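for the writeup, i need someone to sanity check this before i put it in the appendix. the sequnce is what the collaborator sent (i think, or maybe the updated version? ugh). structure was predicted straight from it, no edits. if anything looks off just tell me and ill rerun, i have time this weekend
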Amino acid sequence: MKNIKIALLLLIMTLSCGNIFAEEENKADALIDAGNIPYERTPVNKLGRGMINLFTCLAEVPAEAYKVTQEKDALTGCTLGVVEGFGTAFLRGLTGLVDAVTFLFPPYDKPLMTPEYAYTDVMNKFKLHKKVEHGYDRNENIVQ
């Protein structure tokens, strides 16, 4: 038992002295400027995009219903639009999950689904259409 304690003590001492013979810091590491690395080309971008799309994918349902209602009619928007919305939400959630799981593997700046975020897609679908009754068009110019 005494020999095991001595061997363990020697092992701890040997492992704790590993930095005595450490070489000088590599000069190439000091030349990397983290401020010049574009965010779009980092794993953090891919992970963030994946998590955002995973948690906001259900925003596609009302956006798609609204889009179909504007293109066709209210009944079609409430039925077909909702079904299309759940389909789009499923795909966006799946691509978000894939991005979040594979965030360490390149490419980092190429989203699996366009537009890159559900929020962007929702905002594009809810854009103001020409609203003559309010006196403004899409570019918010006054209509006479």
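The helical segments are 2-16, 27-30, 43-56, 60-71, 74-101, 118-125. The longest helix spans residues 74-101.
thx in advance!!
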